[in-house]
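Homework-ish question, so no full write-ups if that breaks the rules, but can someone show me the predicted structure for this set?
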Amino acid sequence: MNNDREPSRNAIGFALPLLIVALVWQLVVSIGLVDSSLVPSPWSIGRTMLGLLSPEPLILSYLVTSLYRMVVGFVLGSVIGILLGVPLGASGGLHKALKPILDFFISVPTICWVPLLLISVGMGDATVIIAVFLGCVFPVTYSAMNGVRSTRKDLVWAARGMGASSSRVLFAVLLPAALPSVITGLRLAVGYSWRALVGAEMLAAASSGIGYMIYAARAFYDVNVMFAGLVLIALAGLGMDYLVMGTLERRTIQKWGAVTKT
Amino acid sequence: MSAFFRHRRLATADWVVPIVALLAVWELISRSGIVDPVLLSSPTAAVGALFDLAETQTGDGYSVLLLHVLSSVGSLALALLLAVSVGVTVGILMGASGRVYRFLDPLLTVLMPIPGIAWAPIFMLWFGFGMPTIIAAGALAAFFPLAYNTATGVRSIDSRLLMAAGSMGAGRREVLLRVCVPGAAPSILTGLSLAFARGWRTVIAVEMVSASLWGLGFMIMEGREYLRPAHIYGGIIVVGIVFLLLEWLVVRRLERTTVERWGMRAPVEM
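A: Not a homework solution, just the prediction itself:
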C-alpha cells in the first residue's frame, strides 16, 4: 500500500495540501462554525505544543520515553522474530507443527495481552515494552518464515549439489534470499509495534509517554493536548516509517533490485 | 464449516494436532504450579470461564458472552459499512483524478500512522461513550487501506478499456459502475481484508478504553479489574477465533464469489 505511491513527490506538493487544510480548519474554527472546546484550531494546538515545550520540555521527554520503549521492544521483537522465523521456514516439520499456532497468535490484537501484563507485570515501562515486542514478533516471524520458504528450490539444490553443508546453505543461500521479505516485514512490523505502543501507553503507562499524555488529557477534557498528542504520534510514526524504514529499504533491497511489494 | 476447512486445503489434522499440543503443554504448565495461577490460568479454566459467561444471563435472558461477541461484531460491521462507503468513494475519486490524488495523498499519509485507539479520547468527547466512539474509531482505522487500495486499483485499469467503453457510448456513470469498480475489485478486496483486520483490532482496543459495557475488549478489561486471568485468556481465545471465522467465512468468501470467479488475480494477503 504505502510502497505503491508516486515516488515523484516534492516537498511543496506535499506541504501545500496540508497548509490549505490547516487554513480552512483555522477559518472554520475562528468564524465559530464549530465549538472550539471540541475542535481546537491549528493555531491553538500549536500554542499548546509550545506551552508543553517551553518552561520544561515535557512533550520532548514524553516523546523520548515513547521512542525508548518503542526501540527496545522493536529490536528485541525483530531479533527474536527472525530467530524463530528462519528455522520455521527452513524445516518443513517445524513449519507444519507451528504454523497453525502462529496463525492464531497473529490474529489476536496485541492490545489484548496488555490486561494480562497489567496483572503480572503491573503498570509501567516493562508492560509497554512487552506490548511493543508482542506487536512485532509475530509479523517478523511470519515474514522471515515466508522469505526462507519462498527461496527458489533450484538455488538450494545447486548449492547442495556443489557440496555445501547445511549451515552453508542456510547462511549463503536461504538467509540472503529471505532478506527482502524480512525487510518488508520489518517495515510492516514498525506500524504494528507503533500501534501497540500507543495502545499500551494508554492502558499501562503510569506517568509518561505520548499515549499516556492523550489518555490523561481525557480527565480534563483538554482537546488541545489530545490533538497535540495526535500531531506528535503522526510525526513520529511518519518519521519512523519514511525516514528509518524507507531508507533501509532503499539502501538494501531496492538497491539490489529485489523490491518486494506487499 | 466444511467450506472453511476445504478452503484451507489442509487436512484437519494438520492444524488440530498443533493446537491441541499447545493446549496440552499450556495445561500441563499451569497444572504443575511453576507459574503463579493468578498469571497463567489453564486452558480448561479459560474455557470454563467462557462457559460461565455463556450461561450467565442478563435480565432479558440473553447469554452474556453472546452479547459481548455480538456487540463487537456489530460495531465492526457498522464501522466497515461506514469505511467502505466513504473509503471506496474517496478511492475512486483519487484514482480517477490525479489532482484529487495529489491533494489527498499528503493528508492521508499524515493521518494513517495514527492508531485508531489514539482518537478514542477525542471521539469520546465528540460522540459520547461506548458504541459511537468504538464505531467511529474502527471506521477511521479501516478507511485508509480501503481508500488507497481502491485508488491503486482504479489507476491500474487498462486505459484502453475506458476508451473502448467511452467510444461505445457509455456515460460517466456507466464507465464508473461497469468498468472502474469491477476493474478495481481485486484491489478493493485486498483493501477490505486489510480494513477488516485493522477495524477489528481497533474495535477491540477502543472497547477497552471507552467505558463501554459490552464487547470482547470490555470483557477482557473486566477480567483484569477483577483479577480473573481465566476470563482474559478466554476473551483472547474468542477474539482470535471470531476474527479467523469472520475472515474465512466473509472476506474469503467474498473474494471467491467475485474476483476469483471472474478469473482475476486473487488478492495478496498480509
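Now go work out the reasoning yourself. Hint: Chain A is about 75% helix and 0% strand.
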